Amino acid sequence: MTDESLANVRNSVGGPTGEELLRVEDLCINFDGFEALHHVDFSLLKGLLVGLIGPNGCGKSTMMNCISKMHTKWTGRILLDGRDTACFGTKDLAKMVASVPAESGPLFGSTVMEFVMLGRYPFVNRVWWESPEDERVVREALRTFGIDHLRRKSVALCSSGERQRALIAKAYVQEPKLMLVDEPTSHLDMKYKLEVMEYLQNVARKDMTVLVAEHDISLMARYCDVCIIMKRGGIVTIGDPKKVITEELIREVYEVDARVGLDVDGEIYVLPKRYIK
Question: Which of 9, 105, 60, 75 is nearest to 215 (CA)?
Answer without folding.
Answer: 60
